[in-house]
Amino acid sequence: MALISVNSLSFAYRDRRVLHGVTFSVDAGEVLGLVGPNGCGKTTLIRCVDGMLSPDGGTVMLDKREIRTMHRREVARAMAYVPQSAGNRTGATVFETVLMGRRPYLNWTVNRTDEEKVIAALDLLDLGDLALRNVAELSGGERQRVMIARALVQETGVILLDEPTSNLDVCHQMGVMEVLRGLAGEKGLAVVIALHDLNLAATYCHRLMVMKAGAVYGYGAPEEVLTEEMLRAVYGIEAVVKRDLSAPYMVPVRPGHLRGGA
């Protein structure tokens, strides 16, 4: 069952068209990876799906309800968003920042259940020892994991993440992706992740959607989408795609514009 369905979504910044009729859906328990070169529209698409930007065409259905008909508090209880930049929330501790993810459920007080959910999310993302640290004192990668923990305590059915692994070392990249894929399966979440690392995406995502110039170029299982032809057409590189592991992986050879050179 699709928890989120996007149909013919279009968006423009004034006279610059950014998205062209994008259509996709994500089922419960599924991780969808959005991939494509810089400027292809991944971040704009995520912001349109979340409701931060208003598309000029198409629909976003959140569990069979059109998102623009929903109150913002309803959306926050159904969908969480992790931005590309973790920010520098000076004055707030890690615990306080993650606790903000409980805002859609809070009235005037924080109860023990809210605190326990925060502690569990911190432990899950290896942040327990940093709970009382000021977020401004953390590294970029640590702040990114804090924002992911904040999204998890929001307890939504859909999670949107914009390049959540960009500031992480390889160990934490794998750890975060394993957590997200595991939660998708265990809790029936629909997870949408914009990624630059194609090998990471192919390893942890059930399906990939390749974007080029604001449109969908390819959509399907990693072994169907990650091809040498796609890498040439979308990324402009010559690469070899290996298929001797559980997931396909690509080995870049040279930029496409150097093809035929020395």
TrEMBL record:
Keyword tRNA-binding: no
SUPFAM superfamilies: P-loop containing nucleoside triphosphate hydrolases (SSF52540)
GO MF: ABC-type vitamin B12 transporter activity; ATP binding; ATP hydrolysis activity
EC number per UniProt: 7.6.2.8
The ABC transporter domain, residue ranges: 4-238
Keywords attached to this entry: ATP-binding, Nucleotide-binding, Translocase, Transport
Annotated catalysed reactions: an R-cob(III)alamin(out) + ATP + H2O = an R-cob(III)alamin(in) + ADP + phosphate + H(+)
Record's keyword annotation contains Translocase: yes
The protein's role, per its UniProt record: Required for corrinoid utilization. Probably part of the ABC transporter complex BtuCDF involved in cobalamin (vitamin B12) import. Probably responsible for energy coupling to the transport system.
Identification of the protein by name: Cobalamin import ATP-binding protein BtuD
